[in-house]
């Protein structure tokens, strides 16, 4: 804090903002060090009152859910009487976050497989065009036919994997959506 901030500080409001942002109440120690240079001593009682009030706003099940849903970790700054409520919401939010990540990963893998299938399709078409083009010997055409066969096998394997991946993607998305609907009823 600078000199002006120390001299004009509303210690209740600073405590409230710190509590509402889940900052550790020990933050007052930093303010004390900053303001000592200007011969200002923070009002600990007012800061603690504000921090407790701000914590009431932060340490709710709904906010715990939002913090968890964003993938953030609990910093351990809720008062003991509010911690279990916050943690219940946080666990639900983290569970939903985990399901969402799994759904996104499955969707990304599926898209990657789709791109690989498209590349193999393009390569297969290119080889088929080569096969009927002028200027190739019998041995070269035989080699191209073998390449076409190999690409076809690769394509079949990848297509089979893609089907399984699509099923997994749909299942993870469905699990996420079901859990989201259940938790919406609880936290909205």
Query: What Rg is obtained from the alpha carbons, in whole angstroms?
Result: 30 Å
Largest sheet: none
Helix-strand category? mainly alpha
Model regions low in confidence, pLDDT < 50 over at least 5 residues: none
* Strand content range: under 5%
* Overall pLDDT: 95
User: How helical, in percent, are the residues?
Assistant: over 70%
Order of helices and strands: HHHHHHH
Organism: Pseudobowmanella zhangzhouensis
Coiled coil: 96-130
Protein name: DUF2799 domain-containing protein
Keywords: Coiled coil
Question: Mind explaining what this structure looks like?
Answer:
This protein is mainly alpha-helical. The chain has two domains: 1-58, no CATH class; 94-187. Helices cover 81% and strands 0% of the residues. The protein has seven helices and no strands. Helix 2 (11-20) packs parallel to helix 4 and helix 6 packs antiparallel against helix 7. The radius of gyration is 30 Å and the shape is elongated. This is DUF2799 domain-containing protein. Keywords: Coiled coil. Pfam families: DUF2799 (PF10973). It comes from Pseudobowmanella zhangzhouensis.
Structure in a nutshell:
With 188 residues, the chain is mainly alpha-helical. 81% of the residues lie in helices and 0% in strands.
